[in-house]
Amino acid sequence: MPSSPCGDGCLPTAAERAGLARKAARCAMLAAMLLSLPVLLAGGVLPGSWRRSLQRGYSRAALRGLGMRLRVRDERGLDLDPGERGVLVVAGHVSWADVLVLCALGPADFVARADLLDWPLLGTLARRMRIIPIDRARLSELPGAVDEAAERLRAGGRVVAFPEGTTWCGRAYGSFRPALFQSAVAAGALVQPVGIRYCTPDGRLDTTACFVGDQTLAASLRRTVGLRGLDVEVLLAPLEEPGADRRELARRCERAAREILGADLTVQDILDSMEERQTTAA
């Protein structure tokens, strides 16, 4: 089972807080978006281009409602043109907001935890987004998820996966596990490594948005909305050919996606920090 040592000890001890007026405006925007969610859920009856534009616009509006500003650095170049080929998008996993970030860039099918389908409201949205469920407690079902992803890639689709298998704080990170890269190898699909970095408006890495440990979604939302501001930097690295070795492909994509992060902590650093905080609290 993928695991991460990240937890409350990874959260910043101090941050610039938003004023009451700004927090109220953000909460009002998020409430309005929640009320309009049935429009997004009904998007299946719209033409494909309209539905994709609706999903992208909704995701961008949600990021603004959370006080996040999206900044994209596109380094894909012109060396590889996907054409009709499918594209597997892979990124490190920091927060539930990663999904909004990637949806804001373009439509895709997500590989996501299977129990998401059982969540109220979000489960309905997940089914509408045609997620590929994966139950990491039942690894015998992993080949089925890989085969489903490969089938959608063969059809020319875009599939998003978080190959770390769990969330990290953004200052440290896990390895890209190779299993889901097999779908690109089997389908002959290109792979798009993406780096995601949450930072303060002046460019300092900020772990406020990370969703780790025993946090609840509600607590994470409150903390994020309460910030004065948060930038989301996204790196679209050059596309990668799949090759024949999923492990080698995973290593290539991990190197490309990490370029933006400037990660400066090891796993041991995180454990030491958590132990220090627990000692101080005691």
Automatic annotation (TrEMBL):
One of its GO terms (molecular function) is acyltransferase activity. The chain crosses the membrane at residues 27-50. Residues 87-199 form the Phospholipid/glycerol acyltransferase domain. SMART domains: PlsC. It holds the Pfam family Acyltransferase. InterPro entries: Plipid/glycerol_acylTrfase. Keywords: Acyltransferase, Lipid biosynthesis, Lipid metabolism, Membrane, Transferase, Transmembrane, Transmembrane helix. It comes from the Bacteria. SUPFAM superfamilies: Glycerol-3-phosphate (1)-acyltransferase (SSF69593). PANTHER family: 1-ACYL-SN-GLYCEROL-3-PHOSPHATE ACYLTRANSFERASE, 1-ACYL-SN-GLYCEROL-3-PHOSPHATE ACYLTRANSFERASE-RELATED. This is 1-acyl-sn-glycerol-3-phosphate acyltransferase.
